[in-house]
Specification:
2 domains; D-Maltodextrin-Binding Protein, domain 2; alpha/beta; 7-stranded mixed beta sheet
Amino acid sequence: MMKKYLLVLLVSILVLTGCSSGSEKGNDKKIETLTVFFIPSRDSKEIIAKTEPLKGLIKTELAKDGYEVGNVNIQVSPNYEAAGEALDAGQAHIGFIPASTYAMYSQDGNIDVALAASRDGLNKDFVEAKEWNDGEATLPVEEQVTFYRSLIYAGTSAKGRELADKVNAGMKLTWDDLNSASWCHSNTTSSAGYVYPSLWLADQFEGKMISDLANKVEVTGYPDTAARLATGQCDVGVGYADIRRDFETNWTTEWNQENIWKQTDVIGVTDKIMNDTISISNKLVDADLKKALQRSFIEIAKTDEGKEAISIYNHTGYKEVTDADYDSSRKVLDMLKNKQ
């Protein structure tokens, strides 16, 4: 009798276990809320409005791989670090973050890179600063590139014009020239707004970086940098090439200036910077979902609606990359860390 009872109990346990296992496996592809973080390189309200179509596009594409997504939650982080921390802590599935932010927050293995952005190239891509300064707009070209540069811009102030005149005359700037100017920069993990401009300074001036400048202010984002260059609050600002394309209208309508291409000049050009990433949290995204997300975003970028949504970051497509592609970015951060 006891043997019969134990046999019935064992069979019951196996049946229940089998049902439980099947149910959990079935739920692997059910995602109640998929959270996506964007960085604040533009006005947060503008980013939210522009990327709204991604919610439906992501759900539709993931459904092709069998994923049922209830809701896509798009957020703009208050700064670059917050986006990296959200992925690291498993508070976001996906983050649109720069290479340097990925390099900083991926070292403990909680974050992985899924894709790198491709974008239209520019009709100007010069190593010499003065070659950018023809007074004409920088324009996109059809050729896709996987890199961009950071530029050091001189603004409308008297000091800014003094530095620009010197560069355009073919003269080399000194450390005293730059150290006597007021600088606008982004936070320390921003590739174009801090990291690569610091390396440019280090290459030019025996290891000196933005942290060594006497007059510097950390701004909230590139709109703030552009505004301060227009009003003369900063003599020098740093940002991606070519930031002026995105603020040409603001220059005249909001900041009461005449022509951004004639009133600003490039005084420094950095090395190539690897494009932004679409990174994922390993705490929330397994290998299968990562693969599905890679395919989904590549396909989304081919649609008219998708192209319009990702244009907020000047992205035009995505390509698969690996963590090893960002080893050089980690070396950059190590150099900066040793300097501080």
